[in-house]
């Protein structure tokens, strides 16, 4: 009975949906995390009577066909790139992006990765890195004598050196933007890399060319909404239960047929 196989695809799709929701909930406190959502498509249809086919020699046609689908599949889990809440931390190297754009970091394998996580640190050489020690692009080194480090809204990094009365510019932060941000590939560790779907990175300074501005001493939190995720979880559970009931109903129908024989 096809109903068994159709309902099994529904259970499999909702199982994947629950996995996506659980990952969102697990990352509610992950800096710069962007929630995902599951998208579904119906499967191929078996045509028993095709709509528009001729039904008589006089040229009459079927106004509606007879077709039965094969179920459902999970086709994509795009990320929702909306702004997360911005919370103060008072750390001078914590930087939040308010608007569009990604920080750029150098991966050990030579690739450039992109992140919304602005919780930066200084390594032993004074270079600004992310939490994994990957240097930001373009590279900025903060000398040991630097005091009162400041990062402006447009990404200019300045500090007072050797008790000077005027600040010295240490570097300029830049942001990358993409035509299709949902096409970025997730690497984990709050990092993304570009793909053919995302398009090439469009690099510019903050607060220009559709890039957001920067806030020093703040971090962008996850954009996961706990109420929405719980509601989606309940809906997925009920959909899973209904597909399971279809399997039970189909099994009872097959049992009744076998008893009749």
From TrEMBL:
Subunit structure: The basal body constitutes a major portion of the flagellar organelle and consists of four rings (L,P,S, and M) mounted on a central rod. The rod consists of about 26 subunits of FlgG in the distal portion, and FlgB, FlgC and FlgF are thought to build up the proximal portion of the rod with about 6 subunits each.
Record's protein name: Flagellar basal-body rod protein FlgG
PROSITE patterns: FLAGELLA_BB_ROD
Domain Flagellar hook protein FlgE/F/G-like D1, first and last residues per copy: 96-159
Organism: Devosia rhodophyticola
Keywords: Bacterial flagellum, Cell projection, Cilium, Flagellum
InterPro entries cross-referenced by the UniProt entry: Flag_bb_rod_N, Flagellar_basal_body_rod_CS, Flagellar_FlgE/F/G, Flg_bb/hook_C_dom, FlgE/F/G-like, FlgG_G_neg, LlgE_F_G-like_D1
Domain of life: Bacteria
């Amino acid at each position: 009975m096809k109903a068994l196989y159709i309902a099994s695809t529904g259970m499999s799709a909702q199982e994947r949906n629950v996995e996506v929701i659980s990952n969102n909930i697990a990352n509610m406190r992950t800096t710069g995390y962007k929630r995902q959502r599951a998208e579904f498509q119906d499967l191929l249809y078996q045509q028993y009577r095709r709509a528009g086919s001729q039904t008589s020699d006089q040229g009459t046609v079927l106004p509606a066909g007879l077709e039965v689908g094969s179920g459902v599949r999970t086709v994509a889990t795009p990320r929702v790139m909306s702004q997360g809440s911005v919370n103060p931390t008072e750390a001078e190297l914590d930087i939040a992006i308010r608007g569009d754009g990604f920080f750029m970091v150098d991966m050990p394998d030579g690739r450039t990765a992109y992140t919304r996580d602005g919780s930066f640190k200084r390594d032993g050489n004074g270079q600004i890195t992310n939490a994994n020690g990957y240097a930001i692009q373009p590279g900025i080194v903060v000398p040991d004598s630097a005091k009162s480090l400041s990062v402006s809204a447009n990404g200019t990094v300045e500090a007072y050196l050797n008790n000077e009365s005027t600040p010295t510019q240490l570097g300029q932060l830049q942001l990358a933007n993409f035509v299709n941000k949902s096409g970025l590939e997730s690497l984990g560790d709050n990092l993304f890399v570009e793909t053919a779907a995302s398009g090439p990175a469009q690099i510019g300074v903050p607060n220009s060319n559709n890039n957001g501005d920067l806030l020093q001493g703040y971090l962008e939190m996850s954009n996961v909404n706990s109420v929405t995720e719980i509601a989606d979880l309940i809906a997925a559970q009920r959909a899973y239960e209904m597909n399971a009931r279809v399997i039970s109903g189909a099994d009872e129908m097959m049992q009744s047929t076998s008893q009749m024989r």
